[in-house]
C-alpha cells in the first residue's frame, strides 16, 4: 500500500498499473470503474482536475491477510490546487489485494467521503 501511494503521487498510470489487477473493480464517488482502461480514465480525470496534488494514506488496518489475499481499511488525504485555489480533502478507503504469480495486485478499491 505504501508503494501504491508513492506511485499515485507520480501521476503516471503506467507506474500504478502493475499494482492493479487487469480486472479490478474500483468504486469512487464518481462511479464504478472495472478494468485497467476504466480505472486509468478515472485516475487521469482526477489528476487533470487537481494541480500539484499530494495524496497519502493513514491509519491502515489490516482486516484479513493470508498467503493468497489481504484486505485493509484506511483514511486517505489529499491536498491540491483547484481553479488556482488551495484545497484539501479526506475520506475512507477499503482495498482488497490478491497474490498472483507476479506479486500482490489490487483487485478492489472503494473510496468514500468521511461520514458527517
Please render the helix and strand layout as text:
Blueprint: H1 2-8, H2 13-16, E1 20-28, E2 31-34, H3 35-49, E3 51-65, E4 69-82, E5 85-100, E6 103-113
Parallel strand pairs: 1-6
Antiparallel strand pairs: 1-2, 3-4, 4-5, 5-6
Characterise this structure.
By secondary structure, this protein is α+β, with helices and mostly antiparallel strands. It has a single domain (2-113), classed as Nuclear Transport Factor 2, Chain: A, CATH 3.10.450. 22% of the residues lie in helices and 59% in strands. The chain is built from three helices and six strands; from the N terminus they run ααββαββββ. The protein has helices at 2-8, 13-16, 35-49; strands at 20-28, 31-34, 51-65, 69-82, 85-100, 103-113. Strands 2-1-6-5-4-3 form a six-stranded mixed sheet, covered by helices on one side. Strand 4 (69-82) and strand 5 form a beta hairpin. The longest helix has 15 residues, at 35-49. It starts with a helix and ends with a strand.
Amino acid at each position: 500500500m505504501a508503494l501504491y501511494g508513492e506511485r499515485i503521487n507520480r501521476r503516471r498510470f503506467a507506474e500504478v498499473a502493475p499494482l492493479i489487477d487487469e480486472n479490478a473493480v474500483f468504486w469512487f464517488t464518481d462511479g464504478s470503474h472495472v478494468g485497467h482502461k476504466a480505472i486509468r480514465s478515472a485516475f487521469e480525470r482526477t489528476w487533470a482536475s487537481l494541480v500539484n496534488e499530494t495524496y497519502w494514506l493513514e491509519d491502515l488496518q489490516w482486516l484479513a491477510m493470508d498467503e493468497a489475499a489481504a484486505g485493509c481499511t484506511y483514511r486517505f488525504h489529499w491536498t491540491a490546487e483547484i481553479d488556482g485555489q488551495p484545497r484539501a480533502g479526506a475520506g475512507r478507503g477499503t482495498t482488497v489485494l490478491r497474490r498472483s504469480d507476479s506479486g500482490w495486485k489490487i483487485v478492489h478499491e472503494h473510496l468514500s467521503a468521511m461520514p458527517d
